[in-house]
Design goal:
heterotrimer; A alpha/beta (about 325); B alpha/beta (about 325); C alpha/beta (about 350); A: about 325 residues; alpha/beta; Rossmann fold; Dihydrodipicolinate Reductase, domain 2; 2 domains; 3-stranded parallel beta sheet; C: about 350 residues; 10 helices
């Protein structure tokens, strides 16, 4: 994830500094940046901080960054727990720093176009929404460690939960089911989350971490009283090639193929930069990042308890 | 998985039983006190070793150990084990001093093996229920936390528990360290801590506190009030969290039940399948080791507990307002 | 084993599939048919029913079921409104006729079970008309799964989205006659496909969220128009069915059905209605489709007739129809109580 973010920062002309406890020389070299030997050195050198560390480290890193008076862009999910997320918001507020969760899907032009159409009322009132996302099971072990990442629901489905909220508003009820297959030795898991929004609209979010070789794909189908919108990354690619040389090795399956559209990580970086410099509101607020975490946690609880979870109204998250 | 227990006393026996329940293979106990070692050996059918080194050098070394000895021994034992590539589940407190805790945390971070701090209350099913209810907003924004762990332990002050240089403190480091971890689990990271200690018992001065009160504040300004005592004849073990929309209370005397009170005062009893926290803690540790997952509480959680107590102990040292105020008034 | 010509009676034209079945039967050349649609008398004006419909489709016609049964049919096909399936199927079974019943088998679990029992007691065969089972795409998916091409199934997403079905037959949106709204109309097809793929696994937990946001301005619509049904099966497989009348009235087609199956080693997406040429003309600014997929009624009718001739259970069976109704009933209960509904013991099988 750090590489996707670093490439975006490089593209918009930022001067890059890196820190990782295990060393960051390789990444720093690739992006012409400077490796820092400590967090303190990083904060001394950089004006803005982009946290790409595993989820359990978000709180402590965000704390030290805002204490060093740095604005923070933080990879999603904002935090492993709602309690940690609330602390991050409290710390950012106390130090008057920007805390922006990197819900990059909001910057994918397909989703942005759909959101604009919804906002413009072209589809009328939202009724039934479906979101899907598939990818290969991430290779770094912390992703598949529930204690660390929150698993498929908190790490992957949080994207589509956020989309459902972005399109159809706050949620009243969360239900989820999950299947982690331990059969045939192949690693594959899938989860379905059904959200009933306060407006009455219903959303289905389907996540999937598949075996090695699973292609990354995503899409949505949105139905409102005045019309529908559909997108599937496996279609509408604009470029298809067939070759007689057999199947070509694909990308790692964990990150999307950005195809021929504007790099969403770059748009996200610009939005963060502008918010940090001018005080404008970024596309995703810290509250919205926390809300997505809370809904994902409710989904995890629903899986554990085999029942629908009513989500308390904790103020306006729209 | 092959495991051994270091320290064959009360808590070591609890760990051993939980390992057996989890299907792990117990290969030995390290216990220098002959009578204690023999009792353990008879109960579990495993050989007794005088030292950790002799256990590790034997024909059947463990892949993981539980450290169940007094706190002043933890750092050295854990470091020896980790250096030998053996995974460690270390009883709380992680160490008897902040210096040892810091050093042990650094060793654990640098090591390739799993290091877990044994905060068994994180595995208490009723507290897990409270945690998930807080996480999903059932009681709104958390405001206050109350926890008491008090009971009557007759002669505890005469055992190693009562020796500052062996235990690091008294009732607070024994029980209050759990309270700190439960507070962090339910309310978030500790931002500030204060406390007061009772060290005089029936006219006798003890090395360590037998009773203490502690207040914690989280980053989000949740206020926690904690009472711990070894000398409370009636005693109570209770955790209560109050939020903007209601409260959740678990009384350890009512296993399997959490009382949820709404703003309107209505009380609902939430049922939980009771579970043995030690068995669940050991099962999580085994899972962490075998599939390479993070344990629920690692070395940092161990260090934070000791650091919070260090703060409380340093404030409380030799402080007595009473006489000076009385002198001024007089 | 039955040889010679078979006599097949068509009971009611309430469901427009009746015409497809008539042409599939006539094209075989080894069956005689006779149709009756007594409900035509009370059908809304403007809907083509009764003798006129029979004439259009080339079916001999009588006015009443009494006359139909005096003809002593070997089999009947029940195409009445969902709520009338039980009475009609029981009448057919009592008359000693094998029964092919339009989906859903019934509007309640009790009715569906009664139909299954009545046919068993009468010693006649019962088949539920789930035409999607006979699409070549589904057969290919089943074969691939059977051969282990995508490993073990872990999850599925099915969509059956259509326009509000008010055009030809208004009873579809009448909760009395249809037994409910979009949930009843659209869930069963995919529920049955999943049943076929996942057997012998059975549903254990059902959750449904529904709403009536689409077409809320239409006073004739009193039931849910949008819905999501989540089913957890006994082996842990999870599936969600989107059963919504979410196809806008102006769309190029009535709607469609898709099914995605995710396995441990791959996935399969089927879209049986993908076989089409798409066009736009002055009369259809939003486009129109020229479908060229096979008519699924032909293999469905062939299965029914062949099973009768061979004296074996046709598939999908009445039990399969009952299981689909059980899922719908659980989904309706879930939507009404806003909680997940446990199937408890495995459905009778």
């Amino acid at each position: 994830m750090a590489r996707a973010h670093a490439a975006a920062w490089e593209a918009i002309g930022a001067e890059l500094y890196f820190y990782a406890p295990s060393g960051s020389a390789a990444v720093a070299d690739d992006f012409g940046g400077t490796e820092c030997s400590s967090l303190a050195a990083l904060y001394a050198a950089a004006e803005l901080v982009d946290i790409c560390a595993p989820t359990p480290h978000h709180l402590n890193l965000a704390r030290s960054a805002v204490e060093a008076h740095r604005h923070v862009l933080c990879e999603k999910p904002l935090s492993r727990s709602a309690t940690e997320g609330r602390q991050m918001l409290a710390l950012a507020a106390a130090h008057r720093r920007l805390l922006m969760p990197a819900h990059v899907v909001r910057y994918f032009p397909q989703y942005a176009a759909a959101h604009q159409a919804v906002e413009d009322g072209r589809l009328g009132a939202m009724a039934v929404l479906r979101f899907h996302r598939s990818g290969a099971t991430p290779q770094r072990p912390w992703f598949t460690d529930d204690n660390a990442s929150g698993g498929l629901i908190l790490d992957q489905l949080v994207h589509d939960i956020d989309q459902a909220v972005w399109m159809a508003g706050p949620v009243a009820t969360v239900y989820a089911s999950e299947n982690r297959s331990e059969r045939s030795g192949a690693q594959a898991q899938t989860a379905h989350v059904i959200l009933t929004h306060r407006s009455g609209a219903v959303s289905h979010c389907r996540g999937h971490w598949g075996a090695e070789g699973t292609a990354f794909s995503f899409g949505f189908d949105i139905a409102g009283t005045l019309g529908t919108l559909t997108y599937d990354s496996r279609k509408n690619t604009g470029f298809e090639m067939s070759t007689t040389r057999g199947a070509s090795p694909t990308e790692d399956g964990f990150m999307p193929d950005l195809g021929y559209f504007t790099n969403p990580y770059e748009v996200q970086a610009r939005d963060f930069l502008q918010a940090a410099q001018t005080g404008s509101s970024p596309r995703t607020s810290a509250e919205e990042g926390l809300y997505a975490v809370q809904l994902a946690l409710a989904a995890i609880r629903s899986v554990a308890e085999h029942r629908a979870i009513d989500v308390d109204d904790e103020g306006d998250h729209s | 998985m092959k495991v051994a227990v270091i320290g064959g006393g009360a808590i070591g026996t609890v760990h051993a039983k939980a390992y057996v329940a989890a299907g792990a293979q117990l290969v030995g106990v390290v216990e220098p006190v002959t009578a204690v070692g023999e009792r353990f050996s008879t109960a579990f059918g495993v050989p007794v070793f005088d030292t950790l080194d002799s256990l590790l050098a034997g024909d059947n070394p463990p892949e993981a150990i539980s450290i169940c000895t007094p706190p002043f021994t933890h750092r050295q034992l854990a470091e020896v084990a980790m250096k030998a590539g053996v995974h460690v589940l270390c009883e709380k407190p992680m160490a008897h001093t902040i210096e040892d805790a810091r050093a042990l945390h650094r060793s654990a971070e640098a090591s390739n093996v799993t290091f877990a701090t044994a905060y068994c209350h994180r595995f208490q099913p009723e507290l897990e229920l409270i945690h998930s209810h807080i996480e999903t907003g059932e009681i709104g924004t958390v405001r206050t936390f109350f926890n008491a762990f008090s009971g009557h332990q007759d002669d505890i002050e005469t055992r190693w528990f009562g020796r500052k240089e062996l235990a690091g403190g008294g009732a607070l480091i024994d029980a209050g360290i759990h309270s700190i971890d439960i507070f962090r689990y339910l309310c978030g990271e500790v931002d500030s801590a204060t406390g007061t200690l009772a060290t005089v018992l029936d006219g006798t001065g003890l090395e360590v506190e037998h009773t203490a009160a502690m207040t914690l504040r989280s980053v989000t300004h949740v206020i926690g009030t904690i009472e711990c005592s070894w000398k409370s004849p009636t005693g109570q073990s209770i955790v209560r969290v109050e939020g903007s929309e209601g409260s959740l209370t678990f009384d350890y005397a009512r296993q399997g039940q959490v009382a949820k009170q709404s703003r309107s005062g209505e009380v609902e009893i939430l049922q939980v399948s009771p579970g043995n926290r030690f068995e669940r803690e050991i099962a999580d540790f085994i899972r962490s080791v075998t599939v390479g997952m993070r344990p629920r509480t690692g070395s940092l959680d161990g260090l934070v507990g000791v650091a919070v107590l260090d703060e409380v102990y340093s404030q409380s040292d030799n402080r007595s307002l009473g006489s000076s105020i009385l002198n001024e008034v007089a | 084993m039955t040889t010679g010509r078979l006599k097949v009676g068509i009971m009611s034209f309430a469901h427009p599939h009746a015409g497809n079945y008539i042409s599939a039967l006539l094209s075989r050349g080894d069956v005689d048919i006779l149709a009756s649609d007594p409900g035509a008398a009370t059908a809304p004006s403007g809907e083509i029913r009764g003798a006129e419909y029979a004439a259009q489709h080339g079916a001999p016609y009588v006015d009443s079921y009494e006359e139909l049964f005096r003809w002593q049919p070997d089999a009947v096909i029940v195409c009445s409104e969902n709520a009338h399936h039980r009475v009609d199927a029981e009448a057919g079974a009592r008359a000693g006729a094998h029964v092919l019943c339009e989906k859903p088998l019934a509007t309640t679990v009790a009715d569906a079970r009664a139909i299954v029992d009545a046919c068993e007691e009468a010693g006649v065969l019962l088949m539920t008309a789930f035409p999607m089972r006979f699409t070549p795409m589904f057969e290919a998916a089943r074969a691939a799964i059977r051969d282990g091409r995508i490993g073990e199934i872990v999850g599925a997403t099915g969509t059956n989205n259509g326009k509000l079905p008010v055009g030809g037959r208004s009873w579809f949106v009448d909760s009395e006659l249809a037994g409910g709204g979009a949930l009843v109309d659209l869930t069963v097809h995919i529920a049955d496909l999943l049943d076929a793929v996942l057997a012998p696994e059975v549903p254990e937990l059902v959750y449904a969220a529904t709403n009536r946001i689409l077409h809320s301005e239409n006073s004739a619509v009193t039931n849910e128009t949008g819905g999501l049904v989540n089913v957890t099966y006994s082996d842990g497989t999870i599936a969600t069915i989107d059963c919504s009348w979410s196809q806008p009235d102006s769309a190029a087609s009535w709607g469609g059905l898709t099914l995605q199956l995710i396995g441990t080693e791959g996935s399969i997406d089927i879209d049986p209605f993908a076989l089409r040429v798409e066009g736009v003309d002055e009369a259809n600014a939003n486009g129109f489709w020229l479908g060229y997929g096979a008519n699924n009624s032909v293999p469905l009718i062939n299965e029914f007739i062949t099973a009768i001739r061979d004296g074996r259970q046709p598939e999908p069976s009445g039990q399969a129809g009952l299981r689909a109704v059980e899922i719908v009933a659980a989904a309706q209960e879930s939507a009404a109580t806003r909680s997940a509904v446990s199937f408890g013991e495995a459905p009778s099988d």
